[in-house]
Amino acid sequence: MAELPVHTAGLRKVYGSHTALEGLDLEVRPGEVVGLLGANGAGKTTTVKILLGLVAATAGEASLFGRRVTDPQARRQVGYLPEHFRFPDWLTGAELLDYHGRLAGVPTAERRRRIPEVLERVGLAGRGNQRLRGYSKGMTQRVGLAQAVFAHPRLVLLDEPTSALDPIGRREVRDLIRDLREEGVAVLLNSHLLGEVELVCDRVAIVDHGRVVRAGRLDAMVGAGTQIRVGLDRVDERALALLGGFGEVVAVDATTVVLAAEGPDPAAAIAADLVRAGYGLQALIPVHRSLEDIFVGLVSESSG
Amino acid sequence: MSALTITRLSVKEAVSRRLLLAGALLSLAFLVLFALGFNALYSRAASEAGQTETAQVGGIMTMLGVYIVQFLVAFLALFLATGAVSSEIDSGTLHAILARPLSRRSWLGQRWLAFAGTIAVYAMLMAGLLLGIAQVIAGYGAVAPWRAMGLLVLEGMVLLSLGFLGSTLWSTLANGAVVFSLFGMAWLAGIIEFAGEMVGNDLMRNIGIAVSLLVPSDALWRGAAYYLQSPAFLAASSAVGDAGGAGPFGGSAPPSAALIGWSIAYVVLLLAMAARRFGRRDL
Ligand SMILES: Nc1ncnc2c1ncn2[C@@H]1O[C@H](COP(=O)(O)OP(=O)(O)O)[C@@H](O)[C@H]1O
Ligand SMILES: [Mg+2]
């Protein structure tokens, strides 16, 4: 357990009179891509800043690889792309990487070898000798990603990494995240973009008003939300009782029952039982809830 | 972690700033103008006046030159210090750097070291070149040029540390206003203290002393000015027994050990306060 890349328990952060985090619990395991998903102002950036020692938590525990975040050594194997990545703009791209490599303790020869490699990886091949003040927003974000992954980190914290990128750039970032996972690097991805999180994350933690309101494997979370719409020739008490055995009845009208099914997909069993009981089965449609439905449901629930 | 990475980065930053480049060119222009003016005035004095007066012209010109150098050193220190921390926070460049396994104390210390080095090199170079010019033109030799330069550098460190502390407390703009006012106040207090000596007013003397405790920059300059006098100049003013022999802008006594001790403690204390304040701040 001590080697968990990220562990927080009951993390609280109060800014003046405003509570940004209210008991946030989060875990990232080795080699896992976790999405921290939440609306603007939910507390994602604050969480990451606490993990990096940039902001002091008001209460609660936070550690990286088993070291408390107040110890600079906790950040030894961590890469970070800030939400608004800025840099000394009189440096060139290659110099920026060289400085970050130095700060992370990468030896000189290794830095020299790795700079062109990483620039290429983020789509900036041949741009290393250009001053950063001449970089576009998208290039800036790319060089920010490059410095985050430069020193072979075992954990990468990405705060809204695609906000300045076009669709192609976004796809490249997703590929990069997948590569990191293959190399066994843990990734914590902050995003308010559901699609982004849905496409690359193994697990998702949905944050709202400074706390994790739901966390779990993406497939389980989406799977657990499977609903089945059953179309019948008639809906009566007996039919409802029968369907109730497969899960919670969510909605009913004259000819349709919507069932929030539990466990493995029960469609076949439902069909068989209904027909045996003499009902005319007209439709049996599994309705997969998207992450968006879950997200919107949770967030509107807690703010309503 | 490779040592002094932040120091290198900060030196590079200081040197790559446009304004600083302009400052370096202006400094050079000042030295050239000084040499030309000094030469013209001195050769005229040599042809028209007696030996004592000529030596006096040489001494006054040199002191004037070093006085301006002192201001340049102070401005450089204040300019580098006012945004040393605050502008890094505001621009957002600090986040990615402090996310590295680097303590804030180390970042602050390394940055201070970079700027202190820049200031020291500048102060030594300017004072050295100026004294060299005076030596070549007028054969002027200061009593203790190295001690004077040491005091000038210490004055730079004092102002740098003051600006660093302010930079962890306030915005760059507010800090600039505060430290330039304090520097100006110390300068004014030096004149008040001198006037107090002249008229024998204890209140004025004490104001001067109190302010030089708060900001010892002007007191250090006066110490440096004392060591910059020529032996002849010094002998003349001490023969008269005139406490204000060096005028309101110079120094009539060597700096006390207490002043030097306090100035060093001041630098350490202010840096410790800056580190403490910066260590707790949310970024
Ligand atoms: N330095 C700060 N001072 C005061 N409030 C802050 C500060 N930083 C963030 N907040 C507030 O804390 C909440 C969480 O912010 P943040 O962590 O940036 O959210 P997110 O990254 O999810 O958009 C927001 O309501 C924000 O306004
Ligand atoms: Mg954010």
Could you characterize what this model shows?
- The complex is a heterodimer of chains A (304) and B (283).
- By secondary structure, chain A is α/β, with parallel strands linked by helices.
- Chain A has 2 domains: 6-221, 3-Layer(aba) Sandwich (Rossmann fold); 224-287, Alpha-Beta Plaits.
- Helices cover 35% and strands 29% of the residues of chain A.
- Chain A is built from 10 helices and 14 strands.
- Chain A has helices at 44-51, 93-103, 108-121, 137-149, 167-182, 194-200, 218-224, 237-244, 267-276, 291-303, and strands at residues 6-15, 18-28, 33-37, 59-64, 67-68, 78-81, 155-159, 186-191, 203-208, 211-217, 227-232, 247-252, 256-261, 281-287.
- A 6-stranded mixed sheet of chain A has the order 6-7-8-3-9-10, with helices on both faces. In chain A, strands 2-1-4-5 form a 4-stranded antiparallel sheet, covered by helices on one side.
- In chain A, a hairpin with a 2-residue loop joins strand 9 (203-208) and strand 10 (211-217).
- The longest helix of chain A is centred in the middle third of the chain and has 16 residues, at 167-182.
- The two termini of chain A are 37 Å apart.
- Chain B has one domain (5-280).
- Chain B has 283 residues and is mainly alpha-helical.
- In chain B, helix 2 packs antiparallel against helix 3 (51-82), helix 3 (51-82) runs antiparallel to helix 8 and helix 6 (104-138) packs antiparallel against helix 12.
- Chain B is globular and about 70 Å long.
- The longest helix of chain B has 35 residues, at 104-138.
- The mean pLDDT of chain B is 88.
- The chains are: A alpha/beta (304), B mainly alpha (283).
- At the A-B interface, strand 6 and helix 2 of A face helix 1 and helix 5 of B.
- Residues 44-45, 83, 159 of chain A line the site of magnesium ion.
